[in-house]
Structures are given as C-alpha cells and as structure tokens.
Amino acid sequence: AQSVTQLDSQVPVFEEAPVELRCNYSSSVSVYLFWYVQYPNQGLQLLLKYLSGSTLVKGINGFEAEFNKSQTSFHLRKPSVHISDTAEYFCAVSEGGSTLGRLYFGRGTQLTVWP
Amino acid sequence: EAGVAQSPRYKIIEKRQSVAFWCNPISGHATLYWYQQILGQGPKLLIQFQNNGVVDDSQLPKDRFSAERLKGVDSTLKIQPAKLEDSAVYLCASSERRMGNTIYFGEGSWLTVV
C-alpha cells in the first residue's frame, strides 16, 4: 500500500507571498498524483493531477505542482496567495492494477493566509 | 452536471445506536467509494464498488460497518452499533472506470457519536 507524507501540518503565510506545500510518497512502479483542496464544511475538490508527460502540472486557482520521480515528491506551489486560498490541502496517490482509482491520502496541510 | 449527493449532512447519535448514510453518485460513474475522514487526518478508504460489486473492502470494520450498492447506482453505508471512535466525516465519491480518472467527492456526512 502507498504511504503519503505531507511534511507540514500547518503553513501560515501572508497574502501575496509565495507558498509551497510539500508531499512525498512511497515508491511504486507507476503512480498517479493528485492535490485536493477542502474548504470548511465542504467536500474535496480537485486542484490538479499528474498522470504522465510534463512533470510540471498546472491546476485551478493558479496552483501548480512538480512531479519529481527520483525524490518521489509532488510539491504544490503558488507564486502569490490570496486570503481565499485558506483551506486544507491534501496530497493523494493512486496506483493501477486491482486498486484502480483508489486514492491514498496524506494527513493534510492547513494553509492559512493572513492579510 | 449534478455532483455527488449525500444525506444526511449531519447526524448525532448515542453509542451503540445505528446510523445509515446515503449516496447518489454522478450519473454514469461506475465506481463508487466510501471514505472515512477523522478530524485531523486524511480520508481513508472504507469500501470501493465497481458497478454493484465490491472491489476492495479490506479497511471496512465488518463487525459493525456494512455497505451496499443495489442496481449499481446509489449506495448506503450503515454503522451498527456505533462507537465513539466512529465520529468522523463519511465521504462518498465516484469516478469513471479508467486509469488516472478523477474522483469526485460529495460534501460528506458528519457523524458525531456521544
């Protein structure tokens, strides 16, 4: 089974500053990588995903992530955050085969953007 | 396009009571998942259906949890009897059956066991 580690449980940042949320996963032959965002009292919304091809993936709301196979990482970045980006962010991994589509989640990173 | 629908949104029960959650996936999605999200943790898969068959229920506490997906469309997750540690958000999700498919989540059913 996959193991997903989100290295920071909380990330406070000021508005318009850049931010990076870190994610590492246990190695596997082939994986698909996802970042989801969860606003208070809501379900999970997909930000972006990496399936194959370019290692730099762009998502919604100005977020992007870079897949690094050698470091088994998939860090999420945004060059300038807004207060509305305050939310919980989850990194997730899925594998092919019999567990097709099943997501393994990290524990989440709470991003708080201050004015 | 309608999203994944779940009900009830909130439920408070006493320990040893029973509770049921309902989920209607996005139309045409063959795969349905139930995840449990305990406060401060990431979601954990409880059970995965492909149409009306179970693909993975290895993490489902079968002595108290049960789930079914009749006719391959909507699904029900039941807990009986509930324990304090079952307090969590129960997220239903669905996807099309293909590699790298996006999984769409409902807003969740919040359970508090007192």
Written description of the protein model:
The complex is a heterodimer of chains A (115) and B (114). Chain A has 115 residues and is mainly β. Chain A is built from no helices and twelve strands. Chain A has strands at 4-6, 10-14, 19-21, 23-25, 31-38, 44-50, 56-58, 64-68, 73-78, 87-95, 103-105, 109-114. In chain A, the strands form three sheets. In chain A, strands 2, 5, 6, 10, 11 and 12 form a six-stranded mixed β-sheet that branches. Chain A has a four-stranded antiparallel β-sheet with strand order 3-9-8-7, with no helix packed on it. Chain A starts with a strand and ends with a strand. Chain B is globular and about 40 Å long. Chain B starts with a strand and ends with a strand. The mean pLDDT of chain B is 92. In chain B, strand 5 (44-50) and strand 6 (53-56) form a beta hairpin. Chain B contains no helices and eleven strands. At the A-B interface, strand 6, strand 10 and strand 11 of A face strand 5, strand 9 and strand 10 of B.
